[in-house]
Amino acid sequence: MPKLILIDGNAIFYRAFHALPLFKSSKGEFTNAIYGFLKMTFQILKQENPEYIAIAFDCAEKTHRHIEYEEYKAQRKPPPPELYPQLPRLKQGLEIMNIALFELPGYEADDIIGTLATEAEKKDFQTLIVTGDKDAFQLVTDKIQVRVPISGLSTVIDYTPAKIKEKMGLIPAQIVDYKALKGDPSDNIKGINGIGDKQAVDLLQKYEHLENIYAHIDELTPSQRQKFEDGRKDALFSKKLATIVREVPIDLDFEKCRFQKVPYTKMKAYLEEIEFRGFLNKMMEFKDFVDMEGVEVPQVSGNEPKAQSEHQKIKQQKSGQQGLSGQFEHAQKSNSDHVPAHNPGPVQQSLF
Length: 352
Known about the structure:
- The protein has 352 residues and is α/β, with parallel strands linked by helices.
- The protein has two domains: 3-167 and 245-258 and 333-350, Rossmann fold; 172-242, Orthogonal Bundle (DNA polymerase, domain 1).
- Helices cover 38% and strands 11% of the residues.
- It has 14 helices and nine strands.
- The strands form two sheets. A seven-stranded mixed sheet has the order 3-2-1-4-5-6-9, with helices on both faces. Strands 7-8 form a two-stranded parallel sheet.
- The longest helix has 17 residues, at 32-48.
- The radius of gyration is 22 Å and the shape is elongated.
């Protein structure tokens, strides 16, 4: 069965930024998010050896959700100023790696991933979605799993239908109904006022989905019935907002997602330009999917990355130590739609 890796570019980019100390090149270019993202991508290629891989990104333009609901995600704080200037340089590296990149105005990365995963399932692919966004749980099936980093980028959990049932007491198809009832503060989705986590799960376990609850509204307690009557419009609209679109108008030719070996010479030039010289040594660990033909690989010494934050320089001056210390710190989250870095649960494997 062919394997497809789908990466939520913005979610992992955001997490990579917060999982590493802020550092920059000698030219003043911040590169910590680039480093974390590339290293994670190489490690996934090594672990999974996929036939296909693609990365989806959000666009700067408003999505269909913003157009329908102006308050969608309106409460979020602006991103750190050092974050998004790194994105064009990251995409440059991913293109050199021959990884297909997708983005489409009007749609979120989730929608693109949902469309690709749904189409891949029809073709009998085994799909692994790598994201920090729990909205993707609604996409999980026997052939689609979701991998979520839970400690910076260093450890992850793989979510199957059984795992989601164990964690939430629900099946993947009920995730949108759960958000319709409880709401989602991270996306500014209202839900039904006064319905919390336990009530939402209990009602969905009994009635299966939102519409069926309304079909049996007379069976609810007087208090619940009033809440559902008052919140009917918000609940139905919240479900619509929470539902990932699976018919995004994109090119579904999976041959464009077929992974080819990374050209060592081009990747070497790119890594040297952003001063990730020690990363070249690391690439030898991934030689099975790096095109090394005709290349004599030099040995590079030194820890990576070379460029360091002012905080690290001061610390090293005091301690005399070299390289990055505490490289993979826990992510400091500000958007709760990404699964928390300290999310409890059994760790399935490590990305690093």
